[in-house]
Amino acid sequence: MTTQPTPVPPGPEPTTGTTPTTGTTPSLTERRKAATQLEIARAAAALFREHGPDGTTAEDIARRAGVAPRTFYRYFRSKQDAVAPLLAAGGDRWRALLAAARPDAAPLPETLERAVREALSVPEGHTGEGFHQTRALLRAAAGDPALRAVWYRVNRESEERLVPVVARLLGAGADPLYVRLTAAVATDAIRVALESWAATDAPLEGPGSPAEVAARCLRHLLTGRTAGTTAGTTEPPAQHR
To answer: Where is the composition biased (Low complexity) (predicted)?
Structure first.
């Protein structure tokens, strides 16, 4: 059973706490559903790392997750679709941090960069397993069109959810076109950063890490400055407030 799904930046482990954009607490039913989806996603990611997508079936994933095949298909359309919650985790965390940011705290590019550095850093006391999963999945996606399509779809959905967050940060009267363009550019900057990082053996922290590469991409695209260019050399785009 295959699909052609249609990329949030991944990273830290997904959570089942508050809804990323609204901050509302999910119901017990929603939390149970999210927990089941996450268990299936982790099983799929583990099997993909062990056997590759071609060597894994939906039934294998259901068996590893301890659920019936019908339960698997209740939540996911294909074996590749099953890893979407893991691929979306970093984007969910990034939007949650941006949703909690004060609109007047700093210029928008700085707010976006600060949030992405936090979202794509390994929390203290964690092993960074979510990043290792992401790297393996993005490497597998390079040779699996269906898995790559899931990655693209996740990023597209992340971009759409980022639009109202950016609009709030820019304030009333912001140009809708500028808002949408900013959401698209920011999402693609992080997507490219993660793909570039995953293709290397760079560490999880420090130079070459997901947070560092993503911050460089954001800075370049949103302010027109490359890493190493002194502040003020190129004026950042005017913010619409």
So the answer is: 14-26
Q: Note whether residue 106 is domain-resident.
A: yes
Residue 191 lies in a domain: yes
Low-confidence residues of the chain, pLDDT below 50?
1-12, 15-22, 226-241
If one counts the domains in the chain, the total is 1
Q: CB within 8 A of 76, min separation 6: which ones? A: 37, 40, 58, 82, 84
Which amino acid would we find at residue 227? A
pLDDT of residue 125: 84
**Across the chain, what does the average pLDDT equal?**
86
- The parent domain of residue 78 ranges over 28-223
Inside any domain, residue 120: yes
Q: Which residues contact 238 (CB under 8 A, 6 or more apart)?
A: none
Q: What is the dihedral of CA 165, 198, 132, 23, to 10 degrees?
A: 0
Q: What is the pLDDT of residues 39-87, one digit of tens each?
A: 999 999 999 999 999 999 999 999 999 999 999 999 999 999 999 999 9
- Distance, C-alpha 192 to centroid of its chain: 11
13 three-class SS? coil
pLDDT score of 225: 54
**Domain presence at residue 234:** no
CATH number at residue 159: 1.10.357.10
Residue indicated by tokens 């920011």:
186
